[in-house]
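sry for the spam today, last one i promise. struct tokens for design, 435 residues
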């Protein structure tokens, strides 16, 4: 009864520990898997020659609110009480501030940054208040070449993770021009864009309702609805734009970008022009895009061109384009919690007696010097419990050290997958384990 009572008390204490909404702890296997995913993404960025930088977790409120660059989402910023700073909402504004402060960097400047950001929004599935973004950006360079490279880098990072996706691509220039053509007043273009951007969340009827609340007449709303739901191939949509838009430059840029993407070996069917893709942030000025998971039909990454954001801080506009991958969404889609691996080490070194510890430590030191990751038992427990521990953490091998092994200056290697066991010299064990 005492044990039951103690467990009940512990459960009650744990239940009373406050824990913030919209964040999560990671178990060791989850954190290990997460790091492996980051490594794969980072490897793709590096193969394209992107450099990494680091920026603080918080920025000045004045930077985050500069000329309304974030737009209506400014209300989601976590401000720090009594200080004129706030947690980063994303990494793009920090990059813009960084470029304004370091104007001697060679251009095009290609950078990536993987780190946490924070938004004070309502938590829901695939959406957290604290999250990790993997950002990659190009500042400067020829527009269509930079756009295509950024889009391709994002696609290849998702390919490296084995995630099937379709790239939904649009241009703010299209929407801005088309909205003017259908007669939307200038002061209502941005609010109308924000309404369209919520199509995935509130559905077609919800978008129509929000547009009507802006005071747009039924005919104008009908034209917008028909536009964002326009069906056809990419060629059909570009032909439609060619006939409709007053400025043909944006259409030419989109054609060039899609042609370049084919040279990156992206399948034509993996890129779809989608007039409903707006991207909610107000700093986008040109091409915008989202990567949607084939399985989840949800946005897992996105980005676009922001040619005026850096000029907000430096007084000199610099063309820039970037993409951000939402790591937490990717991990949820990959079901990273089911990964059995708990440790970086493949080898657990067990000791029959505490007196064998020093010899075991010597062997572990030799193995580590040869690049073999070893976890050495440091607890006083019998061999059965040590091997149970090794199995619980999904080690592949256990090296067992007893009096006989210490006297013979060798080791016993057990394969924890198939249960086979053999005695080796330390040097032979190195060769076996490296294989």
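last one done:
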């Amino acid at each position: 009864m005492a044990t039951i009572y103690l467990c009940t008390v512990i459960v009650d204490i744990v239940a009373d520990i406050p824990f913030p909404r919209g964040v999560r702890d990671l178990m060791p296997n989850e954190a290990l898997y997460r790091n492996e995913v980051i490594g794969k993404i980072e490897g793709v960025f590096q193969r394209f020659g992107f450099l990494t930088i680091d920026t603080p977790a918080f920025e000045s409120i004045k930077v985050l609110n500069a000329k309304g660059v974030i737009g209506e989402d400014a209300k989601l910023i976590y401000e720090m009480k009594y200080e004129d700073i706030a947690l980063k909402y994303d990494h793009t504004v920090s990059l813009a501030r960084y470029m304004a402060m370091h104007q001697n960097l060679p251009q095009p400047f290609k950078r990536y940054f993987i780190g946490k950001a924070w938004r004070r929004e309502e938590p829901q599935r695939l959406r957290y208040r604290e999250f990790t973004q993997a950002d990659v950006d190009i500042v400067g360079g020829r527009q269509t070449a930079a756009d295509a490279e950024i889009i391709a880098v994002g696609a290849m990072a998702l390919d490296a993770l084995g995630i099937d996706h379709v790239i939904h691509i649009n241009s703010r220039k299209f929407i801005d021009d088309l909205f003017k053509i259908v007669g939307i007043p200038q002061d209502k273009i941005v609010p109308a864009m924000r309404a369209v951007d919520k199509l995935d969340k509130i559905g077609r009827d919800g978008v129509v309702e929000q547009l009507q609340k802006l005071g747009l007449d039924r005919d104008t709303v009908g034209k917008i609805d028909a536009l964002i739901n326009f069906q056809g191939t990419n060629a059909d949509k570009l032909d439609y734009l060619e006939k409709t838009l007053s400025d043909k430059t944006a259409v030419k840029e989109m054609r060039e970008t899609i042609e370049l993407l084919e040279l990156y070996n992206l399948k034509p069917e993996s890129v779809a022009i989608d007039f409903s893709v707006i991207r909610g942030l107000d700093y986008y000025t040109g091409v915008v895009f989202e990567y949607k998971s084939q399985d989840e039909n949800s946005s897992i990454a996105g980005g676009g061109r922001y040619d005026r954001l850096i000029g907000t801080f430096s007084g000199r506009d610099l063309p820039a384009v970037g993409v951000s991958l939402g790591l937490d969404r990717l991990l949820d889609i990959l079901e990273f919690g089911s990964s059995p691996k708990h440790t970086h080490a493949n080898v657990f070194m067990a000791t029959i007696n505490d007196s064998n510890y020093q010899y075991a430590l010597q062997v572990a030191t030799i193995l580590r010097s040869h690049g073999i990751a070893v976890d050495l038992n440091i607890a006083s427990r019998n061999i059965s419990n040590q091997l149970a521990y090794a199995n619980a953490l999904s080690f592949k091998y256990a090296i067992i050290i007893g009096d006989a092994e210490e006297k013979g200056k060798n080791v016993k290697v057990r394969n924890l997958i198939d249960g086979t066991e053999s005695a080796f010299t330390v040097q032979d064990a190195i060769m076996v384990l490296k294989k």
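The CA atoms of residues 125 and 281 lie 21 Å apart. ok im logging off now
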